[in-house]
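User: Hi! I have a protein structure encoded as tokens and I'd like to know what sequence might fold into it. I'm fairly new to this, so please keep things simple.
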């Protein structure tokens, strides 16, 4: 149980504006052993950490991430929507998170946000950045676009990948093996203890999302999952201690 990965979902997003450096730093302070984030690409090819394709919800601008340059994105406030204490927080680049994690015992889960827009060479760019910071062994690349995950495995079979999915997937460990994935990042209600056990026998880990209730955390720990993705890394850290 001590080895279960405590993934902070978009950082400590219950306490800080999601996908900001403030959120990532707070997650580590609260006991996270992993940080989950989302990556997209700017107009000029920079890798930026933001969940929505649109900037409206978290940065207050009616525009797509893909249509603005990095410099333009840095003029936006990505924290004030959450609380005035975070006003002025900026959208971070992937390299900022990797640099933060590189000298700490932290696993980084990078979700590729390329289901709505197909960012050119996103897979290669992310992998190159991960390698630059020496994080290949401590990175998991996940996504709902499973073609993209298979491409990541083709480019870098040494970097782990995780299949994101919402509902029942038949014998998901077999599907994972087909595309070279190492983990199943399932919606928390799409798994059972029996599925977790069978996946484990096939060498495939379960990292369910997004688990915020302590009762569900306890159930999943008892089921034998390898990691839990949560907005409350402090709650999970307390249970694991």
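Assistant: Happy to help. Inverse folding works backwards from shape to sequence: for each of the 241 positions I chose a residue that suits the local structure. Here it is:
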């Amino acid at each position: 149980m001590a080895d279960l990965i405590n993934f902070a979902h978009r950082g400590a997003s219950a306490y800080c504006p999601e996908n900001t450096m403030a959120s990532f730093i707070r997650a580590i302070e609260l006991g996270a052993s992993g940080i989950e984030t989302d990556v997209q690409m700017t107009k000029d090819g920079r890798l930026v950490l933001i969940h929505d394709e649109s900037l409206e919800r978290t940065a207050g601008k009616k525009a797509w991430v893909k249509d603005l340059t990095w410099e333009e994105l840095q003029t936006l406030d990505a924290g004030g929507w959450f609380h005035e204490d975070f006003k002025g927080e900026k959208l971070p680049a992937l390299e900022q998170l990797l640099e933060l994690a590189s000298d700490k015992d932290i696993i980084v889960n990078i979700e590729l946000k390329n289901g709505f827009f197909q960012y050119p060479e996103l897979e290669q760019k992310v992998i190159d950045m991960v390698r630059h910071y020496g994080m290949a062994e401590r990175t998991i690349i996940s996504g709902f676009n499973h073609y993209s995950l298979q491409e990541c495995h083709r480019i870098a079979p040494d970097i782990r990948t995780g299949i994101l999915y919402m509902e029942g997937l038949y014998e998901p460990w077999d599907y994972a093996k087909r595309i070279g994935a190492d983990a199943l990042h399932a919606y928390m209600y799409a798994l059972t203890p029996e599925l977790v056990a069978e996946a484990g026998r096939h060498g495939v880990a379960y990292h369910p999302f997004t688990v915020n209730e302590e009762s569900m955390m306890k159930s999943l720990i008892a089921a034998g999952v390898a990691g839990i993705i949560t907005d409350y890394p402090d709650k999970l850290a307390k249970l694991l201690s």
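A useful reference point when you look it over: Residues 91 and 199 are 36 Å apart (CA to CA). Feel free to ask if any position seems puzzling.
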